[in-house]
Amino acid sequence: MPKILIIEDEAAIRRVLTKILSEENESYEVEDAEDGMIGFEKIKNNDYDLVLCDIKMPKMDGVEVLEAVKKIKPEIPIVMISGHGDMETAITTMRMGAFDYISKPPDLNRLLNTVRNALDKKQLVVENKILKKKVSKNYEMVGESDAIDLIKVMVDKVAQTEARVLITGSNGTGKELVAHQLHEKSDRASYPLIEVNCAAIPSELIESELFGHVKGAFTSAVKDRAGKFEAADKGTLFLDEIGDMSLSAQAKVLRALQENMITRVGADKDIKVNVRVIAATNKDLKTEIAEGRFREDLYHRLAVILIKVPSLNQRREDIPLLVTHFTNKIASEQGTAVKKFSKNAIKLLQEYDWTGNIRELRNVVERLIILGGKEISENDVKLFASK
């Protein structure tokens, strides 16, 4: 049941607002407070889905309430109630983070629409937080080996900075997990992480994908389109498999990193962007530079911090933890009981040559869960996990 607090020093307005909201929707739980100080104390001690707050009040005015609430519970939408002489202040409060404002005396339709929209926004914020936690779990780095512990320490140190990071490692080692952790632990976490797989995009389209294009820039450009740099503004751009990027695109990425400016394909207008770039590759970029396939100046721009993700063969002691992690995850996804792996089964998995790294191990675990017995045995591993 949505819980709404009305902070208003005029008793008549409080009664009107309470009556309107109670009659409109019996599922609204409405409380009130006769001044800002009492209202703020209630907010500190209770969970509200929406606050309606007058601007001019004794003891603590609406602007002070707004400032104080945004510091302790920024997710609560606050709608300001303004008198005829408060319009300029009401607009100022919008810049400070108020959801909206309504005028006295309150217009019925305007009030109800504003309340519904504010509650919808609150619900979206809650859902986004839940989704973020789920996403964060999906990109959890599992392991207690020295190699993984070192990466976790580096991520914790680097995430809060604006330093660019180059993540290296073979396919399937989990480079994207490191990128997601860097973003989730950064000050940019409330803004998007935009991923681009440079190897999956044809070279003739990569510039349009990254920088966007204007209508008519090429045959299929039927309308203006923003690129990934613009989409990632204030957030993080993850350039996966950057070693496969064309040299012309590399030159434009270099310019974007140097000047924080991009130009859409076919345009002559510069667009300012605020993006942190994290890159990853399975290639030896020093070799690519020597053979003329990668720009050295771009490499040095990207590789401020280097994080090398080890192969699974280099962290075999993490296999028991990874098997447990994947077993629980697969059981949850499929709605089935969690199967156990015998000690001998785990030991045999630790002896395998994991050329496909974590990705291969995950596939093998799923195969064993589907085809193996109630407890996955050494024999199951020999039968179904063979190369």
UniProtKB/TrEMBL annotation:
Residues in Response regulatory domain copies: 3-119
Main location: cytoplasm
Domain of life where this protein originates: Bacteria
Domain Sigma-54 factor interaction per the UniProt entry, residue ranges: 141-370
GO CC terms: cytoplasm
Residue positions where 4-aspartylphosphate is found in the record: D54
Molecular function, one GO term: DNA binding
Subcellular location: Cytoplasm
Family annotation (Pfam families): AAA_lid_14, Response_reg, Sigma54_activat
InterPro entries from the UniProt entry: AAA+_ATPase, AAA_lid_NorR, CheY-like_superfamily, P-loop_NTPase, Sig_transdc_resp-reg_receiver, Sigma_54_int, Sigma_54_int_dom_ATP-bd_2
Biological-process GO terms, alphabetical: phosphorelay signal transduction system; regulation of DNA-templated transcription
Name the record gives this protein: Fis family transcriptional regulator
Species for this entry: Flavobacterium crassostreae
